[in-house]
Amino acid sequence: MGGHSSTFQRLRTGIGLVAGSMLVGAVVAGPLASADQASAHASDTGRDTAAELINKPYAPGTVNIDASALASGGGTVKVVSNPDAGFTSASVTASTEGDLVDVVGTRTKPVAASSMVNTFTVDVANGDSDTSTSALTAEATSSDGISTVSATLKASDASGTVRSITDQVWATDFDGVTLVSETGEQDLRLQKVSHLESAGTVDAPTATALRRKIQGATGSTMAAAAAPCADVCVSGTIEWTDSAGGTHPVPFAPVQIRDDETPPLGVDSELVTTVTTGLDGTYSATVDNDDGPGQGNRDVFVRVLAAGEDFSVGGQFIESPVQSEVPSGTELTVDLTANNTDDNNTAFSLQNAMYLGTQYLDTRVPGGLRFLDVVYPDPEGSFYDGEDLHVLSLDRFDWDVMLHEYGHFVANQLDIENNPGGDHSSADNLSVSRESKEIGVPLAFGEGWPTYFAVSLLQIQGAADLGVPNAGDSKYQDTEDQVITDDLEEGGTLGEDNEFTVMSVLWDLYDTPEDGLDKVALGDKVVFDRLVAGGEDDPGTLSDAYRLIGLGGAGDVNPVSCVFSGQNVAPRLADPKVTSVGKDDKIPTFTWDAGNGGDFPNDSFVVELRDATGNKLIESSEPLDDTNYKPSAAQWLSALRKSDGTLRVAVVGTQTAEPVTGPYRSCMTDIDVKPIADAGGPYSGTTAKAVSLDASVSVVPGGTIASYEWDFDGDGTYDQTTTKSTTTNVYSEPFDGKIKVRITAGAPTMKSSRLALAKEGDTDVAEADVKIVSAPPPSTSTPPSTSNPPSSNNNPPSSNNNPPSSNNNPPSSNNNPPSDNGPVATAAPRPVVKPVVVPVAKPVAVTPLPLARTGTGPLGLLLAAAGLLLGGLALQTVRRRRRT
């Protein structure tokens, strides 16, 4: 994990570690040479130095034991403690385990807020007094008599949780000398051998044999029996022991069948063949029995490497004793069980963890990644330095820690992080503690993703079924140098620049259990593939991851957004206390928590009103810097009408400080939309004439309208029911008031188990103004008479040949009696008869006959006179008819 720089360089006491490492390299180089060469040439862009990566997440700071004074016989150790900012009540405690060392005096001392050195007195007892060569060589290869000195820094974080971190050294008194190792017990035993060699107690070949015994020592059983095997058949089972004492098969580890070559026994050997254990830890091999001219039969032993196809753990191995002069036709059964104390044995715990990690990666990255060397044990801590993976001795059983560091390697190789490295703690907003958002946000993602990767892959690979303590659950656990149990299922709340929040968000996107706002289970493949598929647009921050994982419409990815809201990264809408709404209901005011924390909460927001799918944006606010918003009446009604039954409300939040992160969309709030009646109008008209009424703007969002009921006079009684949205009504009297229309919802047009649609039978009422006035009375006046056309002046002149008027009418009678002052009776007047106007026909033009040019004869003149006479008579007849 990334972390604090060392206060001072750790000391590797003695030459045992160096000599031992050289031997391990020589022993293992043969079978792994090609892989090592590939590793050596692999390019990497990781962190520059291990010193940047010593601190672990969750640790309250750093603690470091300087045991140089103890090694020189001074009887004291210096403990340098450096609590992180934000932690309080810090103290450091010195403790010992074993019979040969003990803390004298005060064991716990307070630590100031800054780096502080405390000194503790440690008493180292003398070892066995037997100084014979045989006794010393036996003691050198044994872990008996090795004790530990530990220093533990404890402090409380802001929540009051006590965090701790421990440093440890191994010490013993051997042949009158105090030996101390900061690496592990194996290194201390190798130091014993180096001491014997430098003192001349043993020669170089014997020292080499002793070192090989230390490096390969383990529990073993060996049995030889005659078998139908032409040569030598070797088989057995390889197991390792966990922290609780349970045993497990060593999966797919290289098993070397070797032939011991030279006296003294164990100095040199020949690799005869290599096979691999199966998933159940079993192996079998057949080797020839040719030990060379004059050498007799083979001297067989088995060596098992803490390695896999894609990795090697510290060059560590375990091996069996030598079975000398094995006759042909022998079935040799060799079972080995790695213990849970010696470093070369506990390396097989890490081998199993790495096997699971590389197997998982093979399912996600075709062909896997390059070969990886694991340096174990490394006193500097557990970290990935850009080339190799380093594991602290006290992380031997902490698979979460081991695979977190492997996650750094994977992220680096796949370019799915942009981790700046340096100090970090899961309890901090790293933008605050590192005084830079530009550092804090990518650092949180760069540390949070590897933890998610480790915990999830162990669950996916079925580690819980193996019965290995603390493996395969939802927790990140560190058990020896720290005591940490953090459950990713519980979630974080500090925001995008907090590594625990990052790992918890990714976990909730992956996992199956649904709780709170976590209603999604994308699975590890989707999460992994979408992050890796970013290509050049790789996810250096949680903001990038949100964009890559949340592919699709806003409604489709709402479950993803809900996880981000639940972990306080995206805004979180408060409950508007409204489950359904109609057009006449009060428009709610929406409020929300901003999301993100520390000094960089989200600070720019847009409220979205979306349709029932969530994928269609209907209305939205302008950018806001406040955390409440009330839509306008026009926006609200528009959104209700277009909602398709459910109005989905979301808030999109952005953190605008450079580098800008987001936007993050909140988990949507769903509001059921009731039917919306609209009576149209206003209407006007006259009595006795049909008025057209139109309610076609009415809508049942997400449903249908089964009926329209019409109340034409607003008296509450519905006068007509139609299935169409229009109708007419004739008012017999003037009316100035309201009409009402009541709509009833029919069957929904869409089905959804998630959306709340209008129910069949739901109703809504709307009204509109109507004004009806009296119709005007019909007209009773006589229409004006039509004027005669003007007389034509083309009539022929009147004839004077009309007969004279007759004077033969009888004279009026004067014989009436005289008046008696009473009314005088008079004759009733005749009705006036309008003259019939007969249109005068236009005279027909008569073309005169042409006269002969030769003159007019008597006959012609006679005919002309007759024509004139007849014409005159005809004209006179016409005039008489007019007078009558």
Automatic annotation (TrEMBL):
GO terms for biological process: carbohydrate metabolic process. Keywords: Membrane, Transmembrane, Transmembrane helix. InterPro entries: Ig-like_fold, PKD_dom, PKD_dom_sf. Residues 673-735 form the PKD domain. Residues 773-827 are annotated as: Disordered. SUPFAM superfamilies: PKD domain. Residues 782-827 have a biased composition (Low complexity). The keyword Transcription does not apply. The chain crosses the membrane at residues 859-878. This is PKD domain-containing protein. It comes from Candidatus Neomicrothrix parvicella RN1.
